[in-house]
Design a protein that fits this description.
heterotetramer; A: about 325 residues; alpha/beta; Rossmann fold; 5-stranded parallel beta sheet; two-stranded antiparallel sheet; 7 strands; about 10% strand; globular; B: about 325 residues; 2 domains; 7-stranded mixed beta sheet; 5-stranded mixed beta sheet; 11 helices; binds thiamine diphosphate; binds magnesium ion
């Protein structure tokens, strides 16, 4: 598969926008201005970028408590996201629910989730509707390796297989679930082997290689769009920050983070793009500057947005 | 006069679903055995034959995934009608009701609707034992963002099902298994029974009886017995337990000044607790006697027939409760 | 593996005792004397027999709504079982809970279950205790192919694998879950392939061949006793009766039952035992007569036992 | 006088577990992250180091299997102490509490005991949003065959944990996350706080306040404010919500003739409903005012700080409720 220059730039841009958003969030949370509970995904940026570059607004995604990156990569507007994190009325969810409960339906972001694994069960329904309505669209559910221990993982994969739903399961292996290493959750090396138990393909890839993610996910999407049922794509990656902001990370072995910083997907891709003469340093910087400006504007937008009135608590409960 | 037809509770549910499926192509049924055999008791028989396997979907045994699928499909604009079979199995889908379906609209700032129905049977009186006979509506009555309806006979079963399917929120529809075969004359023409309103079954001035689900049958018997003893009871069939039709209850209690609630669920933490607590708070000076509850004791339901009978509330126990208030 | 004559007779006897108990139950339920809800397992008799012949009272089993056979094969006394089915005070559970809730702790029968799949989650605990206490004992959980769709199946297998618990999963494929065929529940031919997803062995066998079950389960038990973690044994069999007593079975294709009646595990084994000169017709008849007498006595015992007083409803709620 | 030591709620729980593990080799801890880091907030830190990985067991993310394992291990004679983390996740283990652990002893005719403890945090006030801040004890108060305790400070946290571990029934132990770091002087020597008894925190004659869990803190503030206004409130910290210590409440209400219940859970179908229903039934003629409830409204809890604050009950709201009754 030959990846075009446009796609390469697109992949890079998607990663950069995620990263800059998350880095800015880190700052605003640390300063105390942003309330709540935050789980960030710097370092895992290649997976949402590679996946979402294959999707349109009519395709749906579900993500996790660590979902900012996915939603940005999918194309949601950044201002309402930032306002949501600040708990403001112009947030994408009117400032009520925050980081773990993002949704932006018009771009197919059908929900983050605070309950590990549950996105998978709900994703069944979107995939079901896509098939029921005889569309060519697909649903993607992102989850971590910790989530593979849940009953939700199995029930969803099994049901997607028996009903032949256009649902792609994207598992981010970032080595930890909270503070606990992968071996506590999974007794095999690669979780992708489980797909065979449902008669579905399962593939394990380097989740820090954005082009690899792009190419491999394209195969998964093709499979799902062709009506062949679910597909499991396992992406090996790493989160640079703690489980949540404020996590001292003292469960990490010495040097582990440093090793992975060398494999930072953005750094790796910058080298490649330069080597391939797709982008110059300057051009890359321009992309970053644009993204940074967008994020800074979003923060300004969020700060300018009003706090919700207490009546908001009682709206939208029943339709 | 409207044309009537004798029909039992099972078929009333069946017809309601089929009518709505004819009306609206976004309605489909899903669950374990709902397609082929039409569920273990045949409630959805014929649906697959008429509407095809795309709209009558058999699933693996995965209650959580069934309700999760409903949430996602509803958010995407479909109107699933799922079956969970015996209500005990809903323990496995509490998550999808509580953290997901009932919260989704609010959490997402109103971006989505959640129009789905989940059917579940209560089976007290059927001898099915502790894993198949529970009445768990109380948990779901504690959840804002969803509705819970409990039909009591063929008329309400049909009308509430049609309303539930047209509702834009998650609706838990609680079926009384032990009444499935009880027949009643119901209109042939289309009708709806509104969600959120109690039905005044009999007017009375001495005491209000609120019945929940199939306990209406026992309450009707009790009303007749009380009448023979000169006590005029007003009977309200609650029909909806979330949101609770408190205004209807208040209106009646203001008339009768006495209230007894009868339900098949346990007394402790049952719907009756919430009703009693609200009524005494709102109508403290109107009450001539404490609000009483006629409900199951704080133990488990047995398969053993004598023990099961002792466990369940009935007309005689209700009569005794009412008489206790008349003092 | 050479199976001794004693073991062969034992396997045969275990099957016969199950079958005669179930057949007698059928009669008493049909007459209306026995209350409740009944799920019978005639035709599946070889699986409990072959499995339980490898177990002692210190090994534990969990079974399902269709569990009489397992409990008899494990060695529980028949009188209290029959009294339980009649709802009498001398029942193994004091007549409260009936068929779907049998337990006989002294013989290691830790519970039937009315909730499909839940036996698996609870079985983890017994297996955990066996390991915690450094015993050499194991736990076996029986379940049907329908139960493989539950989150319980996956959570339990995964946890047994990560904690390396001495737990053997025995899956009875009887082609139906209630009225719904296997293909609705499982998108692959053999569920045993799923074991690989947990790093465990999975084996599919003819569940109507009692010696095969015996031998294959012996391997599973050895694996578990050796501290190697869970094992999945899939046994292909068939139930002669409906899902529950009273089920008209109109979902069965024409001739299916007849085909399987020819493969009745008891009939097959009788032929084999005769051919191998292990037992004569007369000796087999004597075993049946003994079993029948035992069951008839159990019915008499049950009938003579008192109904529970209503106070029983309030006993044993809290310890 | 007993020797005292200042300690916070987290460490009180930690010490209780460690003491019981030293006392009884059948006690072990199990759950997500409980071993290595001692849980996400470090409540069980040090346990693995002292007792080894066999007795501090990290599991996959499988709440149902964790509680299921507890049922089986308890039936086999062990005494598991499991952690479910945020109470919202207990939706995934309702089955194991409701159909299994709480029924097992009764269903099996008394053949087994179910001595296990499950810890879960309520997190109102922590800004954690709708998937992490729920108070769901009401569902578990509806289940015979188990117990539910809700400590309110370091003293009760330690004493109730020790009692819970020694109890032969399933005990749901509800921890107040927002109070984890609040310190208190507690005895150095071993003590137990009994399950099933409310604590009389302050004596009073004008009104009884029953507080649940961490709302004791708000109630204590309210009592002080009321005192300043000449109202003598008697404060009962409920401590156990299953079985409900109704006798303790009745005794107090007979003295004060007025009752307000404060809890973090929603008012609708909360513990307060059951208490109000029972008190008005039992003490109808003793009450000078309706039983009032100070609890959360019928909506979802927000992560947004202003909305969350508005949602949660507090001392001021309680004072207003009490004054409403004094009329
Ligand atoms: C059902 C449930 N159990 C536990 C938690 C607490 N929890 C939040 S994130 C997490 C770990 C998730 O790990 P993983 O799936 O690998 O995702 P990651 O955080 O690594 O992105 C846990 C246990 C939860 N939110 N939901
Ligand atoms: C959680 C749950 N869902 C549904 C049911 C209803 N039900 C009882 S048995 C059964 C089918 C089980 O099939 P299988 O596991 O193959 O066992 P079999 O009956 O064939 O022995 C179902 C769906 C139940 N008891 N529990
Ligand atoms: Mg992870
Ligand atoms: Mg089967």
């Amino acid at each position: 598969m030959k990846i075009s220059k446009d796609v390469k730039i697109d992949l890079y841009t998607r990663m950069v926008r995620q990263r800059i958003f998350e880095d800015e969030t880190t700052v605003n949370f640390a300063s105390g201005e942003m309330p709540g509970f935050l789980h960030l995904s710097q370092g895992e940026d290649a997976v949402p970028a590679g996946v979402c570059a294959n999707l349109s607004n009519e395709d749906a995604i579900y993500t996790t408590h660590r979902g900012h990156g996915c939603i940005i990569a999918k194309g949601a507007e950044i201002k309402p996201m930032m306002a949501e994190l600040f708990g403001r009325i112009d947030g994408c969810c009117k400032g009520r629910a925050g980081s773990m409960h993002f949704a932006d339906v018009k771009t197919g972001c059908m929900g983050s989730n605070g309950i590990v694994g549950e996105g998978m069960r709900i994703a069944l329904g979107t995939a079901f509707a896509q098939k029921y309505n005889k569309t060519n669209n697909i649903t993607v559910v992102f989850f971590g390796e910790g989530a593979t221990g849940t009953g939700a993982f199995h029930e969803s994969f099994n049901m997607a297989a028996t009903l032949k739903l256009p649902l792609v399961f994207v598992c981010n292996i970032n080595l930890y679930a909270q503070m606990t290493p992968k071996s506590v959750h999974i007794a095999v090396e690669d979780v992708a082997v489980r797909a065979a138990g449902y008669g579905a393909p399962g593939v394990t890839i380097d989740g820090n290689d954005v082009e690899k993610v792009y190419e491999e996910f394209a195969k998964a999407a093709k499979h799902a769009r062709a009506g062949k049922g679910p597909y499991l794509l396992e992406c090996k990656t790493y989160r640079h920050h703690g489980h949540f902001e404020g996590d001292p990370c003292n469960y990490r072995p010495e040097g582990e983070l440093e090793e992975w910083m060398k494999k930072d997907p953005i750094v790796l891709y910058e080298k490649k793009l330069k080597k391939e003469a797709v982008l110059t340093d300057k051009e890359m910087q321009a992309i970053k500057d644009t993204a940074r400006k967008e994020v800074i504007d979003a923060v300004a937008f969020a700060r300018a947005s009003a706090m919700p009135e207490v009546e908001e608590l009682y709206k939208d409960i029943l339709a | 006069m409207a044309e009537m037809k004798k029909i039992n509770v099972q078929w009333a549910i069946n017809h309601a679903i089929a009518e709505e499926m004819r009306r609206d192509p976004s309605v489909f049924i899903i669950g374990e055995d709902v397609g082929g055999p039409g569920g273990p008791f045949g409630v959805t028989r014929g649906i697959k034959a008429e509407f095809g396997p795309e709209r009558a979907v058999d699933t693996p045994i995965s209650e959580g995934a069934i309700v999760g699928l409903c949430c996602g499909a509803a958010a995407a604009g479909l109107r699933p009608v799922a079956e969970i079979m015996f209500m005990n199995f809903i323990t496995l889908a509490v998550e999808e009701f509580y953290n997901q379906g009932s919260k989704m609209r609010w959490m997402f700032g109103g971006q989505v609707k959640q129009p789905f129905v989940v059917r579940a049977m209560t089976a007290g009186g059927f001898g099915a034992g502790p894993h198949h006979s529970s009445s768990l509506e109380g948990w779901f009555a504690s959840m804002p963002g969803m509705k819970v309806v409990m039909p009591s006979n063929a008329y309400t079963a049909k009308g509430l099902m049609k309303s539930a399917i047209r509702d834009d929120n998650p609706v838990l529809y609680v079926e009384p298994l032990s009444s499935y075969t009880i027949k009643q004359d119901i209109p042939v023409d289309e009708y709806l029974v509104p969600i959120g309103k109690a039905e005044v079954v009999t007017q009375g001035s001495d005491v209000t009886i609120v019945s929940v689900g199939r306990m209406r049958l026992e309450a009707e018997k009790a009303v007749a017995k009380l009448k023979a003893d000169g006590i005029n009871a007003e009977l309200l069939d609650l029909l909806t337990v979330n949101p609770l039709p408190m205004e209807d209850i208040y209106a009646s209690v203001k008339k009768t000044n006495r209230l007894v609630i009868i339900h098949e669920a346990k007394e402790v933490m049952g719907i009756g607790a919430e009703i009693a607590a609200s009524v005494q708070e709102k109508l403290f000076d109107w009450l001539d006697a404490p609000v009483a509850r006629c409900a199951a004791p704080f133990t488990h339901i047995a398969f053993q027939p004598l023990l099961e009978k002792h466990y369940l509330p009935n007309a005689d126990k209700l009569v005794a409760k009412v008489k206790g208030l008349m003092g």
